[in-house]
Amino acid sequence: MSSNDSDSWGAVASSYVQVERLTTPPCQTLVNRVSLLLPLNVPNTIAFDNGCGTGVLSAVLRQQYPRLPLLATDASHGMVNILRRRIEHRKWDEVRTRVVDSRNLEGIQDGSFTHVFSTFMVCLAPEPDKIVGEMQRVMKPGGVLGLAVWGDPQFGPFSTPWEKACRRLVPDYEAPMVMDAKWTFAASVEAGLVEAGFKDVVVWEEDVPWRWDDVEAVSKYYLEGNNPGNVGMIDAFKARGGDVEEVRPIFEGIIKEDCGQKDGSIELHAPATLATARK
């Protein structure tokens, strides 16, 4: 990952709690499924959280398996710094961190880990095939992979209402792809893991609810939160001459109509693709 890519994610690290609310439940599901295949609470187990972000998956592992040795890495200094503060505050003695490019896990030896996880990073990162190949390399023979990616290369919870809103002002606007389609859809994820040398691949899909207090909170996060994926969709609209403040009330109205609840809250839904596999 280039420094620009990692810096853009580091810039949103402090507001990433909004995303943590969405990603925690599928991370819990993934950890449970992986542990059924290869228990995480037995001697000589060592786990790897690749693309750890602010530490959602690491937190799930630590909560369920407090003595599990774990290495958590990310290309973003901002993300890793938040996880480090969490580790220090909660005294997670068995969790180590490193800033490293997931395409080249320099300094990590072949066959280092019994369990390798990556959650909602591979689909967003450059050169995902290299990342998956590196995860296969650092896994012990017989080890288990737990992978989670978003199930839609446009990230529908935001792109669908955004595209509807933008087309009222710019009729031929199309929301761009923000992820690699090969690493979003279930069938292609399965094929990619087999291609990388994994076996016993099992892939499933989940619909993950994402609750917000009100439509203004959704709009503020999407339009002002600087999430790199969202920025790409917004910039594509601006490049066509669109005005963000003009489209904002239209965007909010569509979200409220399509996803609004009786109490004024908003419930978005994000498709996720999850997988387990063995080396």
TrEMBL record:
Occurrences of domain Methyltransferase type (ranges): 49-145
Q: Which InterPro entries match?
A: Methyltransf_11, Methyltransf_Superfamily, SAM-dependent_MTases_sf
Pfam families xref list:
Methyltransf_11 (PF08241)
Top-level taxonomic group: Eukaryota
Question: Which CDD domains does this UniProt record tie to the protein?
Answer: AdoMet_MTases
Q: Name one GO molecular function term.
A: S-adenosylmethionine-dependent methyltransferase activity
Q: What is this protein called?
A: Methyltransferase type 11 domain-containing protein
Give the species: Imshaugia aleurites
